[in-house]
Design a protein that fits this description.
Number of helices: 0
Structural class: mainly beta
Shape: globular
Radius of gyration: 14 Å
């Protein structure tokens, strides 16, 4: 069964940190680009990409609000992708989703989402 499993969400105070993990089941990370999206309380229409990492060369992309605070990494040996989030702010509160897209076929898989809540 092919699926993505996210973990690492939770509740933190402003300024805190969390590390999200994304682990594929049923396929290897090596030929997939991975992206992290987040969806706010407004529903699916608010889902937005905040970070991506390419296969092989590891080129990264960050949405403006994530730059300098978030870091996306991948480990194709352990078959995992991570999103390190530092200096979290209340506006980072959202459900975070991992998405894998095959670099040739375009086949796409989504995780179930993990809740991140930042509040004092």
């Amino acid at each position: 069964q092919v699926q993505l499993v996210e973990s690492g969400g939770g509740s933190v105070h402003p300024g805190g940190s969390l590390r999200l993990s994304c682990e594929p089941s049923g396929f290897s990370t090596s030929n997939y680009a991975f992206s992290w999206f987040r969806q706010g309380p407004g529903g699916e229409n608010t889902r937005a990409r905040i970070a991506s990492i390419s296969p092989h060369d590891g080129t990264t992309y960050y949405e403006r609000s994530a730059k300098e605070r978030f870091t996306v990494t991948r480990d194709d040996v352990t078959n995992s992708v991570y999103l390190q989030m530092n200096n979290l702010k209340p506006e980072d509160t959202a459900v975070y989703y991992c998405c894998a897209r095959h670099r040739i076929s375009g086949a796409e898989y989504w995780g179930q989402g993990t809740q991140v809540t930042v509040s004092s």
